[in-house]
User: Fold these one by one.
Assistant:
Number 1:
Amino acid sequence: MTNDPFKRWNLTPIINASGTMTSIGASRVAPQTRALVDRILDSFVDMDELQASAGTVISRVTGSEAGCVTACSAAAMTQSVAACLTGSDLARIEALPKAMGNRRVLLQMGHMVNYGAPVDQAIRLAGAEVVPIGTAAACETWHLRAELEQGAAAALYVVSHHTVRENELPLDIFVALCREHGVPTIVDMASEYDLVGPIALGASAVIYSGHKFLSGVTSGIVAGTSELIRATYLQHRGIGRTLKAGKESVVGAMAALELWEVRDHDNVRLAEEARVNRWLDDLTGIAGLIVEPHADWTGNPITRVLIKVEPDVAGFHAWELAGRLEARIPRIVVRSGLAERQEIYLDPCNLSDDEAVQVSTAIGDEAARLRTGGIGKSVSWSEVKAEREAATLAWRGNGDAA
Ligand SMILES: *Cc1c(COP(=O)(O)O)cnc(C)c1O
């Protein structure tokens, strides 16, 4: 039997021009990380010792007092919120999601987003109550202060392209106000490259995904104060058991962080920029497509390619182009989260130069087919929404039984 999972289980290969998307396997794990994970998988290790060692690595990289590893960032949110409800009281930890005392967790309304699941649910899972502050596109100091004065177990801040960033409370003001009121702050930085900023500002806990830009295995990294990290880790004796991080997750996260410390970031950036420039060259001149470099939404050091579709000139909608790319074999996955605005983004992080060329060739081919085949501008955005919902519900637990 073949050792290639794609052949063995008849899986569809993917070229990933979308960055780090959990729905298609997040990232390419570096060989050095895979080797360490492989070694630990064949061994036994005291998990308390392993997690303490992970804390040493996390502290060194982030500047925090302590750290631990969870199953993923969503689990890290649930466990660190739980920690704010229970402290290190084992009876309280075992009692969750029934919480004693103040259960209020403050969250700016514009940060109540969906990264594949809702942020507020990750908080509620711990037994906490989410208190939205401000409105969808505006949060002011007085909104936060008023709720802090009512008392709170914690306040959560999300840094992400998913959030509404116009008129949000800046992180420094948020952390400072919470500190003034003695309320711990948890910062979700799942997909953000800045490993030191929030800790330096005085955040109590900061969360990163091990499997996004860090290119590790599926894991969540929590950096924070000794007290809060102990209480976060101790949740493994309670609700954290449901969110278990095994030895492979912990070692995978540690290895990824250490690789990040020695990675030649400038060279990686140059290689990514070369792919971006190639795309800009290849795609310029396709009728109805405006292509330009696009700086990352939250200031991460990534430049992507923005393809703005003008449907009347191109003869198709952005979502139709993205849909046809996804229907190819191999599937080509682009960032189509803003297709509603006729925008598609190409991300250079998780593909080879050769794959990058295949992406631009496929875009040229599919654009031509959509235009000349008379099939463009036939599917509305509302129909796409309905199709996506139907596709979600059409999943079946037996791939053979079509
Ligand atoms: C990806 C993401 C998450 C979830 O991360 P996982 O590690 O996959 O659970 C949470 N918050 C934000 C902002 C994200 O981008």
Note: The first strand starts at residue 14 and ends at 17.
Number 2:
Amino acid sequence: MNVTHLECSLTGERYEAGRVHNLSRAGKPLLVRYDTDAAKRALSRDSLASREPGMWKWRELLPNGIEPVSLGELETPVVALARTGGPNLLVKDEGRLPTGSFKARGLAMAVTMAKQFGIERIAMPTNGNAGAALAAYGARAGIETIVICPAETPEINVTETAAYGARVYVADGQIDECGALVGQGAAEGRWFDCSTLKEPYRLEGKKVMGFELAEQLGWELPDAIFYPTGGGTGLIGMWKGFDELEAVGLIGSKRPRMYAVQAEGCAPMVRAFERGEEFAERWENAATVATGIRVPKAVGDFLILRAVRESGGAAIAVSEDAILQAVEDAARDDGFLFCPEGGAVLAAWRKALANGVVGKDERVLLFNCANGNKYPLPDRSKRLDLEAAAPTLLL
Ligand SMILES: *Cc1c(COP(=O)(O)O)cnc(C)c1O
């Protein structure tokens, strides 16, 4: 096995590889550690370039026990938003992945590990995309899934999750409250808890975003990364992944400034960042159209804040109007349809540019984490009476 051990992200306490884990004894996320010397011998820029693209080509830096449970996790493209921001504004479009969101990366990895461990039933609280991905990979692996969504979860996520054969419940509370019920069932031995960061392997799948962008940008990380932050798995994962890339000699010590983006209606990380706190208090009455980042309380709060601070970045909150405007503008100007969480990221970049936090000449990478088509859009069509219609009337 290429995994040497796992480690508590708060205390550094070591845990044995090859066993089922959730949180550490301190109640914090566990981080997977690898034999990086062996990985270094196998990985080079050339050897990677010659491999089949996609997340599994990074196998030396992922737990590589069994054949992956896969739906074809392609390498997502980096697209320039030239009209929106000039040639230096890039977006990594995670909406191309199976189930239409980057949750596929984390759940492909987590379900692969669950299968390896012989786990037969998995439960999860979700704002939508994670539940759909869990259900899809669960179906693929022959593992039963139970998904609990807060009331405002987009309908399409709920119906999609059910289509994969999961048991789906829509609950009258926030995601952390749904998570408490999942935790209770796990403690009673009824299922395995696959909540964000309460299971160590989703993070490993997500960190591959950082590997891919490094290679796609010619092994030169961008000046800044803007990430829509709910539980923060991707941000924490990429930050961990950059150190792994450096340890195997693929990149140097340069790091991007990491910007954690939240909505003003649910901004616990922004509040903690501004107050200089290590942990973030729960955000009451959380509400935003960007449901993927509606996470009032994140178990990895200190890891998000640590990455943001170490990198010289910031946590930024944006308004609902700015989110919707950003989605509309990028679609019209560059033909790129962001999901609302991606719209938040573009809005945060605009705010940072206006405040002088980023420069126009800096190379910036935004994350769009789901397919914009999964979300309702305003209907701007007009009725047409074909009897009375003529081409000139359409212009
Ligand atoms: C889950 C999700 C996020 C937040 O991701 P984390 O890594 O958990 O912070 C952002 N955008 C979309 C579309 C999501 O589904």
Note: The domain at 103-199 is CATH 3.40.50.1100 (Rossmann fold).
